[in-house]
Specification:
heterodimer; A: alpha/beta; Rossmann fold; 7-stranded mixed beta sheet; 9 helices; globular; B: alpha+beta; D-amino Acid Aminotransferase, Chain A, domain 1; Dna Ligase, domain 1; 3 domains; 6-stranded antiparallel beta sheet; 13 helices; 20 strands; about 25% strand
Chain lengths: ~290, ~400
Amino acid sequence: MSILIDEKTRVVVQGITGRMGAIQTMHMLKAGTKITAGVTPGRGGSQVEGVPVYDCVEEARAEQEINTSVLFVPASVAEESCMEAVDAGVKLLILITEHIPTHDTMRIRAYARSHGATLIGPTTPGVVTPGKCKIGIMPTHLFTPGPVGIISRSGTMSYEMAGLLSTEGIGQTTMVGMGGDPVVGTSLVELLELFQKDPETRVVVVHGEIGGTQEEKAAVFIRQKMTKPVIAYMTGKIALEGSRMGHAGAVFVGQRGAMENKIKAFRETGVPIAESPGEIAVLVRKALKI
Amino acid sequence: MKEIGVFFSSSLLFILPEKDKAMIFYEHEAKRLFKEKGVSIPQGEVAKTSAEAAEIARKMGKPVVIKAQVLAFPGVGAGDAQTAGSPEEAGRVAEGLLRKSYNGQQVSEFLVEEVLPVQKEIHVAIRVDGAAGAPLVMASLERLSDLDEEAKASAKVASSHADPFLGLKSHEARKLAKALGFTGDSAGKLADQVHRLYKVYAAWSALAAGFNPLIMTPDGNFFASGAFLEMDDSALFRFPQFRDLSLSRILDPLAREGKTIGVTYVGLEGDIGVICTGAGIGMATVDLISKRSRPANFLETGGGITEKQMGEVMRLVLKKAGLKGVFLNMYGGINPIHEGAKGVVKVIREDRVKIPVVAKAIGNFQEETWKILEEGGVTVIKTIPTDQAVEELFKRLGK
């Protein structure tokens, strides 16, 4: 088992003819992902890496089996591209694009939710269920199948966490990049809930950072609803007040978004916090009793 | 992703600005933007000399408040404001303020505003509620807490989420006014100002906008005596008029150069240069270096690096005086790190870099990347945990 994506996932790549879309389509196909179609307005009839390209998602869905869209579109058209996928009946959207205006993201999120679609991202590395399906930009070889669920606010930290676990022979059920923006489609609590329900996931590792209140809310959820162990690793401890640390959402001003609130919330819930990436593996071993 | 999206990641704000990567509005500029949407602001003009300040006060023919215009930073606050009863006094006050500096900025402009009688002060803020995925409008007769959760929970704060598509509706604004105890005409006027504030927030695709405070005069009118607006970095492509201005307002020249190259540079106090290809790993790296030493900077490239850009990034980090070493932490996911590596070693060769350069590189094209870096004299770490890589760096530096 896994969450969100598995061997039954059939993917359309929106923005497939762009440089990034084409390269990542190649990497995803190599990882075994079943990409049935690509979409770029005006490029219908062409092919990328042998994948048929359509002018719109609706046309692609009329001819191909599609249940998930991954988007590599420019930020300026992310909103309309997501709405197009939702209107065509796609129920899972993985929005890789960075630097989308927050007002646009709020509308994308609201639109997806009101139509029963799940949005992951934006500013996400994507989602990977090792050995079954990889949707996004992560280096495939760092991920291996196993019992650990990973949720990360950062692409590069998700690679580090999965990579170091894999090196020690500890695989992952699914890794979800939650996204580093102030507004994301699916929250940390919602993702924890999915991992809690997934029978194969035995431990969940969460990478959190300064900004927002996701970690504080997660701590409440973990205390009330989680029976599986959760391990946290937090970054941004030496951030400067008011400076965005690369992610649009990674900023604190006064108490707002401050690290100490998040660490306090996890500590009070009994969530072990790794002091370094290396310590994550130690804590996971302990939780798995191996 | 920056090559396919419009990449310009400045942030515009004032009152709660970012030190290193913000365009900050001066108060008088923000008020002009508010006025465009029909927010009532006190009568006022900008002066650059004490003579001009006196002249504006004379023209107004009433007591004025003279506000030094400086860019406000968190925890430091804006410049002083002083009242003056006559044009002569206005000139003297301005003269005094001209000699002052705040947070390293010499005062060179004033906002000369009419002094209005205050019956009530109303604090209003519109922020993005990340958890709800919607704008949150909060209003109170007291100063609002920094913490949205705390503010929302307070009995003294009236709040309302706005629909991301439809915005704040008039009746929602009226409900807020009523919840604060306003009735009749004054409730209607207050709701109108809040509604206009929402229009400012929406028009500029802002992360935050507010009145700090809005004042009610004894005759029942409302004026924004304090106003704030925090622009969204990511929305700047829609406002090309701010593009040059936003760069000019970054005070740290290295952060400004980073912005020009298309990366995030945050200056820190130490002597180890840091280059990372992602924000998460970048934060982890500076956190870990800080345990035993001090990073000179945080630098995150985001996705889509090139040979040329990584060369520029290397030169940027090396500009900081007194560097003892440079540490690179690179992941090849969306980034072609083998291309980036070429740019790094080219700079090492051309600029005859003598300090140790240590790089961890993992991901797509890692073997090729290692070869390029090693041939260029870089110590390469081929294992994953950043803590181990940082230990190697310390060893190399004799720490």
